[in-house]
Please model this.
Amino acid sequence: MASDHIYGITLDNGSTITHGDGVNTKDAFTDIPVTINELQPGSSNAKLAFSGQSGYIKFDTDIRLPRHVHISTRQDGEPFLLHERIFVANGAALVQLGGEIYVIPPDSLVTIAPGVPHTWTACPAGLEIPPRENDSISSSNEPFVSNGEFLMLYEYEEITGFFPTAQTETLKTEKEYIRCDDLESIRIPKLSAAEVRERCWFVYNRNVQKLGRQ
Model:
């Protein structure tokens, strides 16, 4: 059934982040007492389906993935860039998308567009989301406080591997990919809560704001 709900936010690079008010929360059944939190409405695009690997990773601040993209191969042997979905549960994450670092609250879905270089780690312990004193992205609820860990649930559009890169700009085709073997240089640096507040974008509901640019 079609819905007029606006799901999350879309970044300039085509990736989407769904959290809070962007989630379509509804009572789906008249005779079953269950509330559904819908993160994506589905797509009429028959070409977009997720049939790759799926699983989970338990992150802490010592786990810092190198920046990478995902490339798969069609049945005709042609390589292509693909989508990835990440659900952030039981904690808060930092994700770098296109060279910018975003603070992702728990219970959020991040759909990474094809060719967007990205990397993940956990938010440092003690970080408040949203920041308590910032009215433009705050909520009436008490802020979530990171404990330095989160659970990642991942799913790929097609079976894929890991392609590390120093590139931050979105790749238009897989031919633009340049491999990087210096993995330490393409990780998110270890950041304190104060550094995250200064350097990173905060996502909350349908808002994205960088406190250090006020």
Residues 84 and 156 are 5 Å apart (CA to CA).
